Amino acid sequence: MGIVGLGNVGGGTLTILAENSEEIARKLGFRLQVAAVCSRTAKEKQLPAGIAPALITTDWREVVAHPEVDVVAELVGGTGVAKEVVEGAIAAGKSVVTANKELIALEGVNIWRQAQAKGVTLAMEASVCGGIPIHAVLREGIAGDRIETVFGILNGTSNYILTEIEQNGTAFDAVLAEAQRLGYAEADPTADIGGFDARSKLALLASLAFGVRLTPAEIYTEGIQRVSPTDFAYARQLGCTIKLLCAARRVEGGLFVSVRPALLPVSTIMASVHGAYNAVWCRGAFGADTFYYGRGAGPTPTGVAVVSDLMRVAREIRPEPAHRVPPFAHTELPDASPLPIGDQKRPWYLRFRITDRPGIIRDLSSILAGHGISIDAVLQLPDQDKHNLPFVITLENSLESSVRSAVEKMAALEFMVEPPLAMPIERGV
Q: Is 201 a residue of the active site?
């Protein structure tokens, strides 16, 4: 095999291949051999003891062309060079293992078709949820069920930040800075805190669960930047916590798909997922609820997924199987678009910051009533600053388009310090 990319995941993969080689050989009945490795600084890399490739190079093309390489592991990331590596390997008749959620979310079906045409395998378990084998679960483990709903916490950085805000009452910017210092967040954290990393992962899970191809950019996405300690204080009054929730639901006519912060009752299993951990909850029409939990990232949890894929592909290369399990779980993936998110009905949490004066609740209630929306409760914690006063209104089950329209109208009221924060309250997790 050949390894392209010796960063965190590549390094973790080599460590597992070296330190767990005996156990791997016992499971396979033969040994996995690393014939070639590639990275921009390959010559300077200290490889684990027991890993002695015949080729160490900075040119991925040499790995793909190497005669002893049957499988190429693309661990570069991104959609530029990584795509060249994957497509180059397939064109050369080599199977591919990848941990690249962004590339697979955007181009996975096209890459799969290329692999089919060349009679090679595309394996991508490590592309979502690191150490959780969620691809295998959806592709094979519960393949006999008809999945109705998938919820996930798919970004460890965002979950770490929200956990710290909730547990310590620390402001968002301070927690983000600490996450960057600890290495949980990148110098540019936009992909994580803006929900875009999770969006790519949800697109992949939706393909596996529902057998359609979604374009990530079509998925309704909000980040966690506006969530504050105040929101957690109100959430506690409602018996809830707040998570960056990835949700995909099958309804008559299509799918509702979204990535956004949402309130979850603390009694739900998903609410107990803290720190940098990930989790996926599935509801099937026949098998009911199943839940999967583990490390969402990191060199060795993700490396386990990569090595497991390498083992699966190695088995397939030895004796040609009669039937391979398609990497997207279905033999066909027709194009699909999510249903308009505004057509979804949910209870809602609206948090306001206002300059206090008489008649505020009257004005807000009038706007809500004008949009056919009913109030569930009004909550206010003690606060002395009447010029920046937070309070919350919860709504009964309401059409999202109506809520968004009402919030937009409320934002223009002269007593608003900032636009209202609107989050759905999820009851079905």
A: yes
